[in-house]
Amino acid sequence: MSVRNLNLLHPRDQIIMIINRIYKKGLTTTSGGNLSIMDESGDMWVTPSGVDKGSLKPEDIMCVKADGTIVGPHKPSMEYPFHKAIYVERPDIKSVVHAHPPALVAFSIVRQIPNTNVIPQVKYVCGPIGYAKYFIPGSNELGNSISDQFKKGFDSVIMENHGAVVGGKDIIKAYERFETLEFACRTLINSKIIGEPKFLTEEQIYSFNNQIPTDHPKMADVEYTSDEKEIRQQIKGMVRRACDQGLMMSSYGTISVRWKGNDFLITPTDATRWDIQAKDIVQIKEGKCEAGKVPSRSTWLHQKIYEMHPEINAIILTQPEYLMAYGVVHKKLDVRTIPESWIFLQDMENVPFGSHFTGNETIPGKISTANPGIIIENDSVLMTGGSLLQAFDRLEVAEFSAKSLVMGTSLGDFAPMNDEEIDELRRAFF
């Protein structure tokens, strides 16, 4: 069932949907982590203790009723007391996610709080991060340590030598916060391997949020032709593929495809990416969008690229963790690693944060056949193509290249292809 029908899903089914996603993305182990939902009657639904997270079924989910009665075939998670303590302190929170993903654990064992000013989206989704002192799992002391942080207003908390816990108004928002926080930690760790991360000021983040258009012109009549419907399906399928491949997160990622002339279709804003449906896609025609929908915040940038580059028919804007490491340290990605990387990308420039703001034509001016992708520092990666598949393929190649370079840093000095080898590739493939 679609997450847009979340209110029609029983809490136990919601938990199964999200724990499956967490486990398949490698964000928890068979035995680690726990999820809960507080329903409208004051009953808490929570994952069981000692049951394989990779094979949980709805009937395995336990219920701790408002009067303390426990219902279900297992024991509830031994850490359910801290979930309960959070709900007591924060009635606005209706779901809690706790697990031990590698990057968040790394921060917890060095006892550091990740700086969410690394990327605006991270700051927007996660907010400031709390820090809970260590106490033995399942203890009242741990519950008090964590709930005190939530009482202070934090929605995301690093648990010292343990992991992290986040809350949300529903389980989807809690999961998005959890996934985004782990992405931020991975990006920061990878960036430390290749350099030193640069952070945004509060003024830069304010400027970013302030320049995003909030009122798009609306079209009076909408035409849904066969080819337009086909593009919707292409975008829907590729968004899900990008999420599965780790190239896009629940909380961030935009895909657009040219329809006819300079008209195009684009993903909406503030939508859970892995659940996007064909009907959610927004048509942009003559600079106007469908009524009742809010297109991506980057719609202006896509429009300008299509207008300036008739050879481009698809654009992807997203945040893959290894490419973003280069974006965070403001370091150029050397695509001369292997022949495929250079053939697909040729070059990949960095542009400063702010180059993607509405009205700034820096990125459309730099995009070319020999420079199909751009790293926007402290923000995202933009990739273009003559087709959606080509843009996606280039994005995958770029991320794999970045990953190889990050990994290779610990092995020694790089030996990229030399100018003679590049010229040979140019003669053979262009």
TrEMBL record:
Keyword Metal-binding: yes
Alphabetized UniProt keyword annotations: Lyase, Metal-binding
Domain Class II aldolase/adducin N-terminal: 13-189, 233-406
Matches recorded under Pfam families: Aldolase_II
InterPro entries, A to Z: Aldolase_class_II_sugar_metab, Aldolase_II/adducin_N, Aldolase_II/adducin_N_sf
Organism encoding this protein: Plebeiibacterium marinum
GO CC annotations on file: cytosol
Protein's UniProt name: Class II aldolase/adducin family protein
One of the record's GO molecular function terms: aldehyde-lyase activity
Biological processes per GO annotation: pentose catabolic process
